[in-house]
Amino acid sequence: MTSVKLKLKDSDVQKLKEIAHSFNNEAGELINVLHKSQEHFGYLPAEVQEVVAEELNIPVAKVYGVVTFYSFFTMLPRGRYPISICTGTACYVRGAEKVLDEFKRILKVPVGETTADGKFSITCLRCVGACGLAPVVMVGDKTYGRVTTDGVKDILKEYENEE
Amino acid sequence: MELIKLTIDNRTVEVEKGTTIFLAAKQLDITIPTLCYMNLKDLNIEHKPGGCRICVVEVEGRRNLAPACATECSEGMVVKTHSVRVLNARRTVLELIISDHPFDCLVCAKSGMCDLQDMAIKLGVRDIPFKGEKSTYKPDFSPAIIRDMDKCIMCRRCETMCNDFQTVGVLSGIHRGFEAVVAPAFERDLDHSECTYCGQCVAVCPTAALTEVDHTLQLINDLSDPAKTVVVQTAPAVRAALGEEFGMEPGTLVTGKMVAALRQLGFNFVFDTDFAADLTIMEEGTELLDRLTRHLNGDKEVKMPILTSCCPGWVSFFEYHYPDLLDVPSTARSPQQMFGAIAKTYFAEKQQLNRKEMIVVSIMPCVAKKYECTREEFATDGNPDVDYSISTRELAKLIKSANIDFKALPDEDFDKPMGESTGAAVIFGTTGGVIEAATRTAYELHTGEELEKVDFEALRGFEGIRSATVNFKGVDINIGIAHGLGNARKLLDDVRAGKSDYHAIEIMACPGGCIGGGGQPLHHGDTSILKARSKAIYAEDEGKTLRKSHLNPDIIKLYDEYLGKPGSELAHKLLHTHYFDKKTRQISVD
Fold first, then answer.
1. Which residues in chain A have Cβ-Cβ distances shorter than 8 Å to B173?
2. B330-348 pLDDT, tens digit each
3. Is B552 exposed, middle or buried (0-12, 13-18, 19+ CB in 10 A)?
């Protein structure tokens, strides 16, 4: 898994310690601790995993094993507007792949990565439970249904003037 | 204790409740094949991830096949271990595993001792019907261990040894599905991880996913070079295991044959690491007595307990995990390194050789020794004291490739002067041996009296952590022993917390000490082999006339002619070392 290096500030370390402490520093709570940590930092760089390992008193290799096992966890910072394209069965048969290709073409980044300006990132997910609207795309919390390749640039346009 | 009756292959067996089908079958001498299961009884390690699926059996009334290693027996159960359905499923599973494995058996380091290869032979696999992509992963070449994950079958035995037994925690399963491999954190290579190179992962790997760095070709080249004087030293544990590679019973001592074989291979001098083990006792024993005397006289500055420092896996372990305790272990170098330092100074002078014309090779039961040779502090002007180390397994390969009929060899003796050793040095090869050897010498030097009985039975055994008190004429000396780094960690945590009342602790990284080293003939999960080797070591000690290090005449001569006395300035320069805080180094990596 590619990763981005990060120098943790003292306050970041403190935050991680608080998260671990809120789960009693129990090794069995690793997934919950990672969940909360990702919520806070947006992603889980090596430096964060090292602190989590230290706090839960488990090998950092184990932490890395869990982070790489679950697709929810990411070691790359997501964009400020994370784009998720549903590639579940219903969306897929209704052209999700073409929609995905269009996002990749316009933003010039592969799946799992973030644009150079940090604005957008592309990920795939499996079924958001809105199959009637297939193919479905999510940008942050906002859902777009029946997306076509032509519609991709319209979606991106909505964020044109956003920071 | 509740007993359960069941039928396996039409035979009835009674087992304790909670027993798995696999172990119940074992009681009937039915060995259900497996690639991932591992039961190291004497070490209290049972690894049963139920991952390989080779051990599937048919259970009457159950819809699907059951993994025997992970399914508990129940009353009245009827199990078939070799029905047509089972055999077909088992073969399919194996074919699927092999379909994602390189087909390079002819040139594979593990060929002939590979569990996967053996299984393919056993199940009669002739064709792999599943064609498709094979998973690949970057190879990792460290100074001691090579990782080739293309050959990994995800049995995850290495993970159990690294995490549960050694508590080193370097290896973990990462990613999922087809991409899953076992790797260090952030997919660093071993050299940038906290790996101690103990080699216990190598010792249990069923395939060539984890192997030791091979120095045999380099050795053959050096032996053929007339400009080089090639000196060999052999560790005590090697002689108690090498015979196994030639079909001899575990526990057969082959010291004399090994010396003869090394001479036939063309070494100019065949010496013994045991000589350096005696030297270690002189240095470490002196340090122990010095610290002990100061401690008993109320010196609060002196660090207690003294920890042995012969084992390079253990040294790395405390450098990574206990950098705050770096002044606690003895500063004495390991016997391998003491040997190298003396060979390339004292012995070189005697032979009028320049150290650059010499190649010092060690035969070790160990993988970490390969790494130890490369540590910068053990070199002069870039020339290492020990050029490289080869394992017991590599030596066996070398002997076979040189057309030597090992079993028919006559017994020969080591060369002088660095081939002379005492029984105290021999027992370095087994857990408790170093501290027993140190006790024999320290007792006599401290009390000025001769020991009536040199055997300290209380220090022997196979328990992971042992302790004993030896009375030095009115003074009780508390001795601790641990083998396996997980056990070492327990003792070290007490030392760190100031709760340890030991005066001296011996630690060896591998199960049983060096006899269970990562470079030894593979035990395939049978820990009784380790016990047999240990017995052989004690037998060699008992057979020796001299059994106390300070009585070794060539050691006495070495001090008279060269070093002065133990702990002298020259002794410190050549025979002692210092340790590094590797934890800090670790964080700055990447």
1. 65, 69
2. 999 999 999 999 999 999 9
3. buried
